[in-house]
Predict the structure.
Amino acid sequence: MAITAKQVKELRDQTSVGMMDAKKALVATDGDIQKAIDFLREKGIAKAEKKSGNVAANGLAQIAVKDNTAAVVEVNSETDFVATNDTFKNLVDEIAAAIAAEKPADVDAALELKTNNGTVKEAIVETTQVTSEKVTLRRFEVVEKSDGEVFGAYLHNGGQIAALVTLEGADEEVAKNVAMHVAAVNPEFVSRDDIPSERLDHEREVLKKEALNEGKPENIVEKMVDGRLRKFLSEISLADQEFVMDSDQTVNQYVASKGGKLKSFVRFEVGEGIEKKEVNFEDEVNSQING
């Protein structure tokens, strides 16, 4: 029977598979959507090895803590549909726990770690077979603290953003509140002391020229530059940012008021920096159905 673009779109919406996979499944099952879904699931193993060239820009980030060690990881899939799958979620949890426990040096070393399903690499291959999508361990960061420090972990939107904060003093609740801030505001540095001097000098010079070009008098330019530089710092320095839960104080002031001191943060946003292929859906349907 003839397969329509509407049928392909419906199957793709339910399974997030590629256009040709959807078309082939519908042809094989005479257009029966439910049978086509079963067909795609059954073909998962056969397609696993064909996924290596696909772009995996969705997925989940996770944080695991073991004693004084924490691991922030990002595991990618091709679609957000698979990222909500329990098999995929369990894989991400296993990988994060293994990395926190063993502290591997890099991704290659992490792939050799043991899980409940063989090595991390073997578990990824198995999940690729089950989901029929490319699955990859993209990156991780291991953070260690002393006994006098605390971790604060926060996952936004089920793991689309993971933020881990380390404080000296204070407690986990304060650290988690700061982690929520990091997830929301995305600072670049812990404090202005971490910003390279050449970047600050460059920014000051740019702001000065900007003020002079606005025709401001020389005697007030420096004050203007100082004010604008503070705003610049508030955009990139965690310590100088207005705290999202209380804009009357900075993050540094909030932490200090709780007897703590900012030490470090890690923020992973799933897919950041990965170039996603932009496809016009209507054009893709027409080219694949009529091809």
Remarks:
- The longest helix spans residues 218-236.
- Residues 165 and 198 are 27 Å apart (CA to CA).
- Confidence is low (pLDDT under 50) at residues 45-53.
